[in-house]
Design a protein that fits this description.
Elements lengths: L10 E2 L8 H8 L5 E4 L7 H14 L7 E4 L19 H7 L2 H17 L4 E2 L24 H12 L1
Parallel strand pairs: 1-2, 2-3, 3-4
Helix pairs in contact: 4-5
């Protein structure tokens, strides 16, 4: 019996450097839509590149896999040690130049595309309305909806 189409919407992560047997099997069977990678999945740049290539190669042509990562800049960067160390988006928002934000987003996108990462869970579009919140903070472009929207659109563009 074929896997339910709804499973193609599921993204999974895994511990360690090598995809476990269950994940390899699920990708080959077209049972999941994507894999999200974390810092725990890489030891060095060449290994990261090989892992992404392996994940893509496992997927059948009629059920391509989406490989994703959370590479936001600032304190949330899984690849900082081997690729560009991006600034926190708060610094970008404080600079308040949409053209610069667009260029930064494009550069980050090119870097991820070169690695064959298909989806970045960035930018954060939360408005930092609570300075005491340790989760959002400098991951946000700013404290007003207008500033966050302006820079999020530029970054995504």
């Amino acid at each position: 019996m074929a896997a339910p189409r709804a499973l193609r919407l599921v993204f999974v992560g895994f511990e360690g450097l090598d995809p476990p047997h269950w994940l390899r099997r699920a990708i080959r069977a077209g049972e999941i839509g994507g894999v999200v990678l974390f810092r725990r999945n890489f030891e060095h740049a060449a290994q990261a590149r090989a892992l992404v290539a392996e994940l893509h190669a496992l997927a059948p042509a009629d059920a391509p896999l989406t490989v994703s990562i959370d590479e936001e800049g600032g304190r949330v960067q899984r690849l900082r040690e081997w690729w560009t160390a991006w600034p926190a988006m708060r610094r970008v928002g404080e600079h308040d130049d949409a053209a610069t934000t667009r260029e930064l987003g494009a550069a980050l996108g090119r870097e991820l595309a070169d690695l064959r990462i298909d989806l970045d869970f960035a930018p954060v579009v939360d408005v930092d309305t609570n300075p005491a919140n340790p989760v959002i903070g400098d991951r946000s472009f700013g404290r007003t909806p207008e500033q966050v929207a302006r820079h999020a659109v530029a970054f995504i563009d």
